[in-house]
Amino acid sequence: MGEIITTGNKGKTVRSDCFVTLELKDSGGLEILLESKVDVMYGNANRKLAEEVLNFFGIQHASLKIEDSGALPLVLTARIEAAIKKLESSDKEFLPKMLPENQYNTTNDRSRFSRLYLPGNSPSLMINAGIHHPDGIILDLEDAVAPDKKDEARYLVRNALRGINFYGAERMVRINQGERGLDDLEWVIPHHVNLILLPKCEKPEQVRDINKRIDAIRKKTKQKYPVWIMPIIESALGIVNAYAIASAAENMVALAIGLEDYTADLGTRRTKEGTESFLARSMVVNAARAAGIQPIDSVFSDVGDMEGLKQNVLMSKALGFDGMGCIHPRQIKVIHENFAPSADEIEKAKKIVAAFHKATEQGLGVVSLGTKMIDPPVVKRALNTINLAVKMGKLIENWREAYEQV
């Protein structure tokens, strides 16, 4: 009897996944046993697909058991391929078709109010994540994946990038630390990922190492689309080096802070008031602004406290952050509504832009609104507010035309 390998997940609460048990044999052909609640509808197709994967990797004799809880084909093939490669080394990949709607690029200055974390080994959370319309979706290969599941999660994340429609959300992957993280890139860069999150970043050299590997993979696979980087600072040393990290690469678009690990590094606990992290958050904002990139705040971990989340967002916005992470779809609406410009902010920005436009038409070197002088940074901030309002669909009348003239 040969070695028996298992991959995937099973249990009463597991859905949209499967549990695969594979044993290679010396003879006897292929034995495929499928246990599924949807066997009547999809059983024959799933058996045929399983056989196709085995044949693709040249496996002629094996016992394969699939305990199915409604897995999509791309999940089924990821689980089987992961099992095969635990037993046999192969450079071949059984890839699902790349959806045309997944082949979009993102810009460095796009709105990043929200980014939704999804465990990289839990397909049920990925399938419909896009319908909640977060600005970004993070397929997480790091903390959200158990150590003994990290290898098989790579297959699932790769297939998700190719075969799941995320409805225009920025497609992000949080890789692991160190050498494992560098190896993670081989699984995601060829498949039109938009942004890489670099966890527990403490030095600019980490960013440069990541970029070297990204460039090598893009060259090897002839990828032309941009891949952005967002380091996450999660330690005291990372805070000290925040600006060096933020300015370490041209494809840097944002700098994030992870407060759970940061407060643990300080030896304190995280509070709703955030006094213990005020200095660190301010330093991240300052470093990001100095480097010309977006500062992104940490997640709010109490998914049941919507009022607490709202207050956290307002505090985050007041500190200068452009967005934050979230761990549940119900948090997205609150984050968007409170990071977006308020009616008062929009009205004030409109008056500033109007005053600037009028002064420019009259050839005036000084711009004033009432008794207050308006300098260029104030005008720039007002333009940013209007730009966000346009994106959020909050501007009415003919202000788009006026904005474009400025």
3D architecture notes:
The protein is of the alpha/beta class and 406 residues long. It has three domains: 84 residues, Ribosomal Protein S5, domain 2 (2-Layer Sandwich); 240 residues, Phosphoenolpyruvate-binding domains (TIM Barrel, Alpha-Beta Barrel); 63 residues, no CATH class. Helices cover 44% and strands 17% of the residues. It contains 15 helices and 14 strands. It has an eight-stranded parallel β-barrel with strand order 5-6-7-8-9-10-11-12, surrounded by four helices. Strand 11, helix 11 and strand 12 form a beta-alpha-beta unit. Helix 2 packs antiparallel against helix 4 and helix 13 packs across helix 15. The longest helix is centred in the last third of the chain and has 19 residues. The chain is elongated. The N and C termini lie far apart (75 Å).
Q: What oligomeric state do these chains adopt?
A: single chain
How many separate structural domains?
A: 3
Q: Output the structural class.
A: alpha/beta
Count of β-strands: 14
What is the CATH C level class of the largest domain, in words? Alpha Beta
In what order do the strands lie side by side in the largest sheet?
Answer: 5-6-7-8-9-10-11-12
Q: Strand share of the residues?
A: 15-25%
| Alpha-carbon Rg, integer | 24 Å
CATH architecture of the largest domain: Alpha-Beta Barrel
**CATH T-level fold name of the largest domain:** TIM Barrel
The parts where pLDDT drops under 50 for at least 5 residues are none
